[in-house]
Amino acid sequence: MDSRLAHDRADLAFRKAQYRQAGQCYLIAGDKPRADLAFIKAAAADAPTAKRQLAANAKQVKEQFRQLREAFTRLPLP
């Protein structure tokens, strides 16, 4: 893929909010500043999903600790 085609594809992907793909194409085209911008936008777009996933994981860990604590309190002492 030549530089011009890669740049055109990157521009199209960027307009479609496909920032990771745009970043890769900008790198192929040799446009590192625009690639960096696209990757930053991709990370920002992923942030809400990552935040929700972290919150769900934290809830799951808390529930597992609660169950473990409950199991240990039911054990008879020797």
Describe the structure.
- This protein is 86% helix and 0% strand.
- It has helices at residues 3-15, 19-29, 32-74.
- It has one domain.
- The longest helix is centred in the C-terminal third of the chain and has 43 residues, at 32-74.
- The model has no long low-confidence stretch (mean pLDDT 89).
- The relative contact order is 0.10.
- By secondary structure, it is mainly α.
Helical content class: over 70%
Terminal CA distance: 73 Å
Radius of gyration: 23 Å
Mean pLDDT: 89
Number of helices: 3
SSE sequence, one letter per element: HHH
Largest sheet: none
Number of β-strand runs: 0
From the spread of the alpha carbons, the general shape counts as rod-shaped
> Which segments are poorly predicted (pLDDT under 50) over 5 or more consecutive residues?
none
| Strand composition percent | under 5%
- Structural class comes to mainly alpha
Domain module count? 1
Which key phrases capture this entry?
78 residues, mainly alpha, 86% helix, rod-shaped
Sequence-ordered SSE layout with sheet pairings:
Blueprint: H1 3-15, H2 19-29, H3 32-74
Helix pairs in contact: 1-2, 2-3
Structure, briefly:
The protein is mainly alpha-helical.
